[in-house]
Design a protein that fits this description.
Elements: E1 4-6, H1 25-37, H2 43-56, H3 60-66, H4 72-81, E2 89-90, H5 100-103, H6 108-122, E3 131-136, H7 141-155, E4 161-165, H8 173-176, H9 185-189, H10 195-198, E5 200-202, E6 205-211, H11 220-224, H12 227-239, E7 242-246, H13 255-262, E8 265-271, H14 277-289, E9 294-300
Parallel strand pairs: 2-5, 3-7, 3-8, 4-6, 4-7, 8-9
Antiparallel strand pairs: 1-9, 5-6
Helix pairs in contact: 2-3, 4-12, 6-7
């Protein structure tokens, strides 16, 4: 793959402490302390929660909610604040990350991705605006490889980077990182998991977290249209320095547009000798007409 960025105008785990009745007092105190610091609980509240948990044998978060003290959002916010690496699921050792830019850091490909990263930084990503959706003009595995590589490169700058696989229909990221298909974004959207349940850290890239796509739904567009997606997005972008989304082919589904709508920038991926200029122009117009800020376009040769 020989990527080069073009001006936009031209191409126009460990177990979740709140989900187990067997959590240790130390784990409970940590969550309670965070909620206390957030001003969501008082010391008296925490004592009442612990007492209810002990007598009713319910989860810490469930006990707090039963008492009407906190919401699901408060719990998830506290869990994300707790992300120091030890509370996240960790990719098992011995499984290779299928990313040439990591395995061959001095390769031409790695240098090309670094060049794209540098140009994005010069264009203002990340700054206070730290969410980037990467959109392929057409369906290709190379798109997901590029997204994973760029996220890995940002994490190597010491920035806390989150890679979100929003390609719910045809997910790839879990395969690139040697993970089994498991819960992820779609499960968060239907409230079948918490953030701490689904975020995964990578041993070889300690500043990178992955949010897999999750259980394949039949209504991905509807899920991404939920106000819950906006809330999850805002929570995650407040806790990471860089958030990068892998999205589906924009000509195949409206899912990519839904994701881009919440992001600060979109980056278009154009396949050399395969993407038609008319399609690129049409996608550019579609996105700008919908108020999406295109930070640039990357021309990809081949893997």
């Amino acid at each position: 793959m020989n990527p080069s960025i073009l001006p936009a105008v031209e191409f126009v785990k460990t177990q979740d402490p709140s989900s187990s009745t067997g959590s240790t007092p130390h784990q409970i105190r940590r969550i309670g302390q965070i909620l206390l610091d957030m001003g969501k609980l008082t010391l008296e509240d925490i004592e009442n929660i612990l007492q209810l948990q002990k007598t009713k044998q319910v989860q810490f978060g469930a006990a707090a909610k039963q008492l009407g003290l906190i919401s699901d959002y408060d719990i998830q916010h506290a869990l994300v604040c707790q992300l120091d690496g030890s509370e996240l699921h960790t990719k098992p050792e011995g499984i290779a990350v299928n990313l040439p830019v990591i395995n061959q850091p001095d390769s031409i490909l790695a240098e090309s991705i670094r060049s794209v990263r540098t140009q994005l930084i010069l264009r203002g990503f990340p700054s206070s605006q730290n969410a980037l959706a990467i959109v392929g003009i057409q369906k290709s595995a190379e798109t997901s490889h590029f997204v994973a590589s760029l996220a890995a490169m940002y994490s190597q700058l010491g920035k806390r980077t989150l890679l979100i696989d929003a390609n719910i229909r045809n997910p790839v990221q879990h395969k690139l990182f040697g993970l089994a298909e498991n819960r992820g974004l779609s499960d968060l959207l239907v409230d079948h998991a918490t953030i701490a349940d689904v975020l995964v850290t990578i041993d070889s890239l300690p500043n990178l977290a992955l949010l897999p796509s999750g259980t394949s739904p039949v209504n991905s567009s509807e899920l991404l249209s939920l106000t819950r997606f906006k809330a999850i997005h805002e929570l995650l972008t407040s806790q990471f320095d860089v958030v990068i989304y892998d999205t589906p082919d924009i000509q195949e589904t409206t899912d990519a547009l839904m994701v881009c709508h919440h992001c600060d920038f979109a980056l278009l991926l154009v396949l050399k000798h395969r993407s038609r200029l008319a399609d690129v122009s049409a996608v550019n117009k579609q996105m700008t007409d919908n108020g999406i800020a295109i930070i640039g376009s990357v021309l990809i040769d081949s893997l």
